[in-house]
Design goal:
mainly alpha; globular; transmembrane; Lysine transporter LysE; transmembrane helix
Amino acid sequence: MDASLLLGFLAVALLAYVSPGPDWFVVLRSAAHPRRNGLLSSLGLITGLAVHTIAASIGVSALLLASAEAFTFVKLAGALYLGFLGIRALQSAYRTWKHPQEATDETSEREAGPATKVWASAFAANVLNPKAALFFVAVLPQFVHESAPVLPQILLLGGADILLGCVFWAAFTLTVSHFRTLLQRRRARIALDAASGTALVGLGGALALTSRTA
């Protein structure tokens, strides 16, 4: 593959990563607790990207976007899940504000929560977002040479995207965890949960209104 095409794709992928979206707020809330939680959330997102890469390589993503019924089902499931995560975050903000001691106990329980639950939450948020599939179907093919075998190029670009995601989310998690002491303060936790919850509910609503041609 032409190096210029690969670099161009990575530049576009990086722009997608740095643009705040559902993944940001999922990892942000997790990384504000033990660093392990943030890394597990990041791993969940990366696993979701791997699923999207495989789906794009075998044509599943294209079929999803071609079927109005399948697209609607996935986007509504994703919207509901983001709304669920957002409401949980808003409830956490309210409990922290109304019952400080109860919120402290909840935080301790969440810090000791099972790794699979933290991972699965991020994985589901990514996989149920049809915009991620849209990226692989609408953007990725623009960097594929028609004169060369398509499948190896899709896997190469998808792998490069996953590698870039590993670097980005690791850096994101480490940056957030660096301010963990500050973020664990009561007012900061209320602000973080309220902002994340509002953003996730809003993003869920926007996702529900997304069309296949968006």
